[in-house]
Design brief:
Layout (H helix, E strand, L loop, with lengths): L19 E4 L4 E4 L6 E5 L10 H19 L4 E7 L4 H10 L3 H18 L7 E4 L4 H13 L3 E4 L2 E4 L15 H8 L17 E6 L14 E3 L1 H13 L3 E7 L3 H15 L6 E7 L2 E3 L2 E2 L10 H6 L4 H9 L7 E2 L2 H19 L7 H12 L4 H16 L12 H13 L4
Parallel strand pairs: 3-4, 3-10, 4-5, 10-11, 12-14
Antiparallel strand pairs: 1-2, 6-7, 7-8, 8-9, 12-13
Helix pairs in contact: 4-6, 6-7, 9-10, 10-12, 11-12, 11-13
């Protein structure tokens, strides 16, 4: 599956610091230490509706990580999946009377368009669940060989007790897991399971549903095994960062990690697990089930500058939970106009300090709000908002323009 086009990103004359991110599993900040290219896996969309601000916040957040690694001098291997066959997609297709393949292709293209508009750097491998079915089958066979697979009727399940480290990603106790599992795609009440927390690996063919041939009989992959197989194939074990929204900590990232760790017990799935916060609207987390969504594509069609959308997202630390409002968007548009005015001058306040501050902030757990504040201080000094303009650096405008593009993804 193809990704989207690569935006032009300026090269900087200075190198940024090594990058530290918050690791959910340990609960602390860890400095990444890539062995070769930095390796990142971010869980992608299930393409049954348009990209909303919760999605956009996650992918812009991890775009900061890719940029920070590159500015620190690392090559980056970034992998993202598309769950292009799953229950929500099939249910939506039936409800609206459209072929599920056509729906997935349409919404995936809309996602690509949104990511291009927001200047998110594309993954090196953008992999659909359907095209990864041979990888899923091979991984299930490895899990079978490890004694971690059993049948319930014609479905295959993964035994979570096969992984001694199960629970290490979320840090949750069993009661917490059981409370949430059923709300996030699990089936703890299904008769015949050895453990209520065991997760589906292979769903046997049901009437009216798509299915693919396999050694286990016709069917399709479970959710977690899809990401396990794709990450293992394209990144290997012990890759640098597993990323996604905080709602994926359990069960998705917990299960994906355990499946790979049983197949390859000599290595952890990932070295760090990093999670973006949730975006609310009208007082509740944005979700398709609630219908309280603000779509990137709708704003773009309303002639909203995509950089204003990105600016709003950058104004909140990627790990924070926050609420979208229209006022934030209008404030962002006004601020960008002020920044453009300062940058168009060419000369400005000395740029070396703000360049270093922006790179340091983004390398420090992707702290975009602090980086924005540093640029705003430079803009204020350049325009003389206190009555005393500083244009002593004749090349400052270009230097600041380059760092906010290379580090923050803002093209101004």
């Amino acid at each position: 599956m193809r990704a989207w086009s690569v935006p032009s990103v300026p090269s900087l004359p200075v190198r940024g610091p090594e990058v530290a991110v918050h690791d959910t599993a340990s609960g602390r900040l860890v400095t990444t230490s890539p062995d070769g290219p930095a390796r990142l896996y971010v869980c992608g969309i299930t393409p049954y509706d348009a990209t909303h601000m919760g999605h956009a916040a996650t992918y812009v957040g991890f775009d900061l990580l890719v940029r920070a690694w590159r500015n620190a001098g690392h090559d980056v291997t970034y992998v993202q999946n598309v769950t292009d066959v799953d229950d929500p997609l099939l249910e939506r297709a039936t409800k609206v009377g459209i072929d599920w393949v056509a729906l997935a292709e349409r919404e995936t293209q809309l996602f690509r368009d949104d990511m291009e508009a927001l200047r998110v750097l594309p993954p090196a491998a953008y992999v659909g669940a359907v095209e990864s079915i041979p990888l899923v089958v091979a991984l299930i066979q490895r899990l079978e060989a490890a004694g971690a697979v059993y049948r319930v009727d014609d479905d295959l399940y993964f035994s979570v007790t096969a992984d001694p480290a199960f629970g290490g990603v979320s840090g949750w106790d069993r009661d917490q897991m059981l409370e949430i599992f059923g709300q996030r795609g699990g089936d703890p009440e299904r008769p015949g399971k050895r453990d209520p927390l065991d997760c589906l690996l292979w769903r046997a063919e049901r009437p009216g549903e798509p299915a693919w041939e396999s050694p286990f009989g016709p069917g399709r992959p479970g959710w977690h095994i899809e990401c396990s197989a794709i990450a293992l194939e394209h990144l290997g074990s012990a890759f640098d960062v597993q990323g996604g929204g905080s709602d994926l900590v359990f069960p998705h990232h917990e299960m994906s990690a355990s499946e790979v760790q049983v197949a390859d017990p000599s290595h952890p799935f990932a070295r760090a697990y990093t999670h973006a916060g949730m975006v609310a609207y009208d007082g509740e987390k944005m979700s398709k089930s609630r219908g309280n969504l603000v779509f990137v594509s709708q704003l773009r069609r309303s002639d909203i500058d995509p950089m204003a959308i990105r600016f709003v997202l950058l104004g909140h630390h990627y790990r924070s939970d926050w609420e979208w409002t229209d006022d934030l968007l209008w404030q962002a548009a006004e601020t960008l106009e002020q920044w453009r005015k300062a940058l168009w001058l060419g000369a400005g306040a000395p740029a070396d300090a703000v360049v270093a501050q922006v790179l340091a902030a983004v390398a420090d757990d992707l702290d975009a709000p602090t980086a924005l504040a540093s640029v705003q201080a430079w803009v204020d000094a350049t325009l003389g908002t206190d009555g005393l303009a500083d244009t002593s650096d004749p090349t400052a405008g270009q230097a600041v323009r380059d760092v906010i593009d290379a580090a923050l993804g803002l093209s101004i």
